[in-house]
Design goal:
Bound molecules: adenosine-5'-triphosphate
Protein name: ATP-binding cassette, sub-family D (ALD), member 4
Structural class: alpha/beta
Transmembrane segments: 55-74, 94-112, 284-310
Radius of gyration: 34 Å
Distance between the termini: 49 Å
Domain ABC transporter: 402-630
Order of helices and strands: EEHHHHHHHHHHHEEEHEEHHHHHEHEEEE
Shape: elongated
Family: Belongs to the ABC transporter superfamily. ABCD family. Peroxisomal fatty acyl CoA transporter (TC 3.A.1.203) subfamily.
Strand order of the largest sheet: 7-8-9-5-10-11-12
Number of helices: 18
GO molecular function: ABC-type transporter activity; ATP binding; ATP hydrolysis activity; long-chain fatty acid transmembrane transporter activity
Length: 633
């Protein structure tokens, strides 16, 4: 971020399944400046990683095509002067040949132009793929997507930056490419031709005209980049509001929230449209500047040509020769001015490119920063953890899952410790229940154990690997991915284990049955039948929790961390599922409020708020529980 940037005030709310980040005010000043150049170049490094890259080959092909196109355009451009000559001489044979030549050149020209457009479109698709894949690579590495969406407050709508802004940047760059690529060649060639016809006065006045045009457009463009940036952010916020309603339609409907949501959504729309209007007002001045320079350009060519004519340079020519010469000179001057005008016209596209470049550049910088910090904090997060390959490797015997030593943690942005100096070893076969009032930091303990949050002080170590052979977490909100029933069950494995086919199918059917959701096979039409519904819309909360247990049975980790995983089920169903987990050899670490959970656990960790905690054995002689002083088991 530029040093002049003032941090926006962000309002963060959690709504159902999605967390909503709204930038109330971002006063960042973004322009076509050095920061833009740096960000633009770093994006170019992604798009053109090596000289043999496909984008470079396409760019080279585009250069050849556009240069050939320019040669043909020059030939077409001087045709009128040749027509003047043959018509003045009444030379019928030459006229016929000229007509045939004109037809051929025009055909060739239009073919090359179409090819030029085709290559630009291909480049756009290629660039979009490369840029989006590179953003995805960072976004999904380690826990960047979590930190970016939940913890970082300095970046709005990362989803929109990846899906929409990257697309628009590539589109605008591809529309600029063919014009920019050929400019140095055409400008040099036509400058030479113009100098040849008019002397120094022609190129100097055209160049001066270009400099004035560039300076005034740069001034008009300044405020546009920032407003475009702001407009894109509001566009993302507006879309997010609709997504929020789509995801939580049922909850909103129970509240009869149509009116209030209508008002709030309209408010987002209003903010977006106001900014769009502001952008258009600012663009109006840029358009006036650009169009004035376009028309002045056409007019300037006649002034330049008039100078050698009025100074008598061409007095010895016949009227036919003079007409041909004026026509040819007019073409050369107009084309040179046109070349410069096109560069000025590009300023409107450049202001868009600058806006998108800043948004994507900022995202890349923040993701790189998150990755750096993440690796400092948790070196393992730098490696691309592969759930699937880990599943194939036996993690080896490990009788402890976590070791905590004088661990203290707090929630982000809070001064108060949730838990202070907690020492605990979570070992195999000793089932732990974590209880405590709302907001005392139960789920936060899992966040710290899973390294989503940094500890305030103390030591925490996960001594068993994460994954099916080690530790698995079932979060409070059941997570269902998009895909088939099989993909839900084997998630987060990408591939079927141990091998595709009947054996695996049998296991899945059996675990669905044990989890009490075998009816889903019929509803979906089979394990591999693609469903066109959103799983969250059609399953009840209890079914979702049961499906997550089927997943747990399938993966059979050594340690299962269950965060209120049975809150939507009856105590009877809860008992069945817990007993099954134990029969399958899992050690349970559960979070919950129900006292009925106690009978499935050996230890109870009570978080009392204000940093205090208490560890109690639930299996001591006699029925009464006993506070434990020694916390290593
Ligand atoms: N991303 C976040 N940023 C800031 N504060 C957070 C964040 N997530 C949770 N908190 C806060 O941290 C505190 C502990 O939250 P936590 O989710 O651990 O509560 P809990 O004990 O699991 O409660 P519950 O029983 O309701 O699940 C709460 O005050 C919560 O508001």
């Amino acid at each position: 971020m530029p040093t002049s940037a003032k941090k926006g005030v962000r309002e963060k709310k959690r709504y159902g399944d999605v967390s909503l980040c709204v930038c109330v005010c971002v006063c960042t000043r973004l322009q076509v400046d050095w920061k833009f150049v740096q960000r633009f170049l770093s994006i170019q490094k992604v798009l053109f990683p090596s000289w043999t890259n496909q984008s470079v080959v396409m760019f080279g092909t585009l250069l050849v095509v556009t240069l050939t196109e320019q040669l043909i355009i020059y030939q077409v451009g001087v045709l009128p002067s040749q027509f003047y000559m043959v018509l003045a001489d009444k030379d019928y044979a030459a006229f016929s040949n000229l007509v045939i030549l004109a037809l051929l050149l025009i055909l060739l020209n239009s073919t090359l132009k179409s090819l030029d457009q085709y290559i630009c479109s291909q480049m756009y698709v290629g660039w979009r793929r490369t840029l989006t894949e590179s953003l995805h690579a960072d976004y999904f590495r380690g826990r960047v997507y979590y930190t970016l969406n939940v913890l970082r407050e300095d970046i709005d709508n990362p989803d929109q930056r990846i899906s929409q802004d990257a697309e628009r940047l590539c589109k605008q760059m591809s529309s600029m490419a063919s014009r920019l690529i050929v400019s140095p060649f055409t400008l040099s060639y036509y400058t030479y031709q113009c100098f040849h016809s008019t002397g120094w006065i022609g190129p100097v006045s055209i160049f001066g005209y270009f400099v004035v045009g560039t300076i005034s457009n740069k001034m008009l463009m300044g405020p546009i980049v920032h407003t475009l940036f702001e407009q894109e952010k509001l566009e993302g916020d507006f879309r997010f509001k609709h997504m929020q309603i789509r995801v939580n339609a049922e909850s909103a409907a129970f509240f009869r929230a149509g009116k209030v949501e209508h008002m709030r959504t309209d408010r987002r729309l209003q903010a977006l449209l106001d900014t769009q209007k502001l952008l258009m007002n600012k663009e109006l001045w840029l358009y006036i500047g650009v169009n004035t320079f376009d028309y002045l350009g056409g007019f300037l060519s006649y002034i330049i040509i008039a100078i050698p004519i009025f100074t008598g340079l061409y007095d010895d020519l016949t009227p036919g020769e003079l007409s041909a010469l004026i026509s040819r000179n007019a073409f050369v001057c107009i084309y040179l001015i046109n070349g410069f005008s096109q560069l000025i016209d590009l300023s409107t596209t450049l202001s868009d490119v600058a806006g998108y470049t800043h948004r994507i550049g900022e995202l890349r910088e923040v993701m790189a920063d998150i990755l750096r910090r993440q690796c400092d904090y948790d070196p393992a997060s730098g490696d691309d953890y592969d759930f699937d390959s880990d599943f194939q490797v036996h993690a080896g015997p490990s009788d402890t899952a976590f070791v905590l030593d004088r661990l203290s943690y707090r929630s982000p942005g809070s001064d108060e410790l949730l838990v202070e100096e907690l020492s605990l070893k979570i070992g195999q076969g000793r089932h732990l229940l974590v209880v405590g009032n709302t907001g005392t930091g139960k789920t936060s303990l899992l966040r710290v154990l899973n390294r989503l949050w940094e500890a305030d002080s103390g030591f925490v170590q996960m001594t068993t690997c994460f994954g099916p052979r080690g530790i698995l977490f079932l979060p409070q909100k059941p997570y269902l991915t998009d895909g088939t029933l099989r993909e839900q069950v084997i998630y987060p494995l990408k591939d079927i284990y141990p091998a595709a086919g009947l054996v695996d199918d049998e296991r899945i059917f059996q675990f669905l049955e044990l989890a009490g959701v075998s009816s889903l096979v019929k509803r979906t039409g089979g394990l591999d039948k693609k469903v066109d519904w959103n799983w969250y819309d059609v399953l009840s909360p209890g079914e979702m929790q049961r499906l997550c247990f089927a997943r747990l049975f399938y993966l059979q980790p050594k340690y299962a961390v269950l965060d209120e995983a049975t809150s939507a089920l009856t105590e009877e169903a809860e008992g069945q599922l817990y007993r099954l987990c134990k029969q399958l050899g899992m050690t349970l670490i559960s979070l919950g409020h129900r006292s009925s959970l106690e009978k499935y656990h050996d230890l109870s960790l009570r978080l009392c708020g204000g940093g205090r905690w208490e560890l109690t054995s639930l299996r001591e002689a006699g029925s009464s529980s006993q506070v434990i002083e020694d916390t290593s088991f």
